[in-house]
Amino acid sequence: MSLYDELELPRVINACATVTFLGGSRMPPEVLAAMHDAAQNFVNIPELQRKLGEKIAAMTHNEAAYIATGAAAGIVLAIAACMTHDNPTARAMLPQTDGLRNEVLLFKSHNIGYAFAVRQTGAKMVLLGDGEQVTAAELEGAINDKTAAFIWFQGTFCGRGDLPLPEVIEICQARGVPVLIDAAAQLPPVENFWNFTQLGATAAIFSGGKDLRGPQASGLVVGKRWLIEAIRPLGNPNAGIGRPMKVGKEEMAGLYAAVKRYLALDHAARRERDERAVADWCAAFNQLPGVSAQRSFPNEAGQPLPRCEVIIGAGARLSHDGTLLALRAGTPSIETGGAVGRTSFHLNPMTLSDEECKIVEERIVTLLA
Ligand SMILES: *Cc1c(COP(=O)(O)O)cnc(C)c1O
To answer: Which atom of ligand 1 lies at the shortest distance from residue 185's CA?
Structure first.
């Protein structure tokens, strides 16, 4: 009997995405094995962090890398490093930042919930633009001697008229302002391990617990050596701003195994499998009265993977909301990328086994036939 059964928590089929509220992703055997192995013995934690960082950096074509407890933790550490560099007095002050370079620039359209991680360090956020548009002049004008960093949140929320990333990097580089990329959900494509940093970003920050399928409480910062060196004293075992986001030997080992696996993965075959799942869903659901289904691309995070959009019309056996609630209430419970009150919902195959794709299909057909 599994723990979830013992607790009488319903088994969930996650047809939503790699979302934290459903547990993000499932660790493959090699990741579990690496964590199990690491858990058996003691090791010098800073040395483990350094060695794995060197390996991950080499594998991902970066100068340096640091394993954190998540992308959000990576943002905290990277922003704090940009304010403190190699200054121990500044490190000890945080989150008090008076007298430090403590302004972090970001576009207003990027001011999503995860930007909280920026403020958590004591940094002041300076929002640029109106949420739809930012010009080069606005960015130029915002840079001053208090500017600690620019942070770019990559996702489908980015404003249409926002200055493109290459130009942001060019302007910031010319003024000596580090550029950090929140790329938490930007794998795939696997090339994003190096795309952002090769473009000139100081660091890119990834979630370990999303499509990478590392431990849920893991994340990765890759980029310039000076930044990673400035992060080290902020993180555990040192007491400081990063100490409450302690990364264990198990998370480090698991993340390393996950990165290795991801680099070796047949991403084309995986994409084809997801395409097939979406095509099968569309074919099945388009037979149902009042229902239409179509491929939707890219997905909600902007990843180059397909989803199935299901539109429940007036002639359907259940309403849109009724369908979502019935899927959730069934056994196992099925969570979609939908919300009550909308007109369509998405099914995402990226977190599903073939068997689960079939269960989702059969349940929807049974409900709506
Ligand atoms: C998921 C996500 C995060 C947080 O990642 P964690 O690894 O869960 O801390 C941050 N930013 C964006 C854009 C995300 O999608």
So the answer is: 15
Beta pairing partners, 296: 307
Q: Residue 358 has what pLDDT?
A: 98
Place of tokens 């007491």: 239
Which residue has a Cα nearest atom 8 of ligand 1? 70
Is residue 1 predicted with pLDDT exceeding 80? no
How many whole angstroms from 366 Cα to the centroid of ligand 1?
A: 35
- Do domains 3-21+266-368 and 42-264 share one topology? The answer is no
Q: Class of 42-264 per CATH?
A: alpha beta
SS3 64: strand
- pLDDT tens-digit map of 206-248: 999 999 999 999 999 999 999 999 999 999 999 999 999 999 9
Band (160; pLDDT cuts 50, 70, 90): confident
Query: Is any atom of ligand 1 closer than 6 Å to the C-beta of 206?
Result: no
pLDDT score at 80: 98
Residue 55: the pLDDT is 98
Helix 45-59, helix 249-264: angle, nearest 10: 10
Mean of the pLDDT values across residues 191-210? Answer: 98
**Short-list 82, 262, 51, CA closest to 176:** 82
Phi then psi for residue 333, to 5 deg, are: -70, 135
CA of 318 to the centre of ligand 1 (A): 34
Mean pLDDT for the chain overall: 97
Is the backbone of residue 19 left (phi > 0), alpha (psi -120 to 50) or beta?
beta
139 close to ligand 1 (CB < 6 Angstrom)? no
Q: Residue 127 is inside which H or E element, if any?
A: strand 124-128
pLDDT over 80 at 20, yes or no: yes
Residue ranges covered by each domain of the chain? 3-21+266-368, 42-264
CATH architecture, domain 3-21+266-368:
Alpha-Beta Complex (3.90)
Before 189, cis peptide (omega within 30)?
Answer: yes
Q: Tokens 């990364």 identify what position?
A: 247
Task: Please name every residue paired with 345 in a beta bridge, in sequence order, or none if there are none.
Answer: 310
